[in-house]
Design a protein that fits this description.
Chemotaxis protein chec; six-stranded antiparallel β-sheet; four-stranded antiparallel β-sheet; about 35% helix; disordered C terminus; FliN-like_C; membrane; CheC-like_sf
Length: about 325
Amino acid sequence: MAGEVLSQSEIDALLAALSTGEMSADELKKEEMEKKVKVYDFKRALRFSKDQIRSLTRMHENFARLLTTFFSAQLRTYVHISVASADQLPYEEFIRSIPKMTILTVFELPPLDGRILLEVNPNIAYAMLDRVLGGHGTSVNKIENLTEIEMKIMTSLFEKAFVNLREAWESITDIDPILKDFEVNPQFLQMVSPNETVVVISLNTQIGDVSGMINICIPHVVLEPIIPKLSVHYWMQAQKKEREPEEVAVLQQRLKKTEIPVVVELGTSMISVQEFLQLSVGDVIQLDQMTKDPLIVKVGEVPKFTGQPGKVRKRLAIQILDVIKEEDGDDE
């Protein structure tokens, strides 16, 4: 009964059985102990925690958004891709779950070992192919008769799309996806042993009026070096990482040495283009600034001070009179 929620009628029946003596408390306790024993299938070993699966799901939700943007631009039609599920299962079970003839592309992710598999449902693949060739996105399943041109177009399209995986994984590790193989029959593709645990990320995909699934199969051997980074603890540490005192000191020193322009504005004037073209050496331009009024001192392009002009050791100078306070933005 552990982990189960009883209805009110089941609770009443249980209390009635205890009160009438049909079931004793000892029998109930014994039944409780027996139900705690769970069957474990060594062929279906669970090598990833729920926390790690959630991290992988979060990473590939970002990947799905990147794919949506990429395919929308490439196919020039409505595209929507989202994560449907993330499960761990034996490689053999994954191969049995996909169509007997489908679009399979194999990628390496250096510096990680092993290879990962991208399986695209033929309906989706042909809708993409039709759009690339100028069609309306119609899906015609003739996967057994793929021409070399069709294979080349599909290979190029999925290779470019998978580059987005680098950005989706960058918070965990730097990878460089490389296309290694293209196949249509899963039986001819043996990446890992049948009992090897793999993580399968399933993506719901909509291309125009055609819908289907895209599956990403990631063997345990690929993820093994980065498994510690798939925990919430790692993510929180990465987010809360503070700069070392040495880094702060270096930044402060560099800021002190940064040069910024300081400009004193003597005034402004409005003249016509004709007058501007006729200007020559010795001409005088009347400014809208009175000699008794303070001048504006700009730091960069921002007015920061008011001052008055003068000389220091026969050099022109500006004496700061006041600081210009920043006004609050209007509420309108």
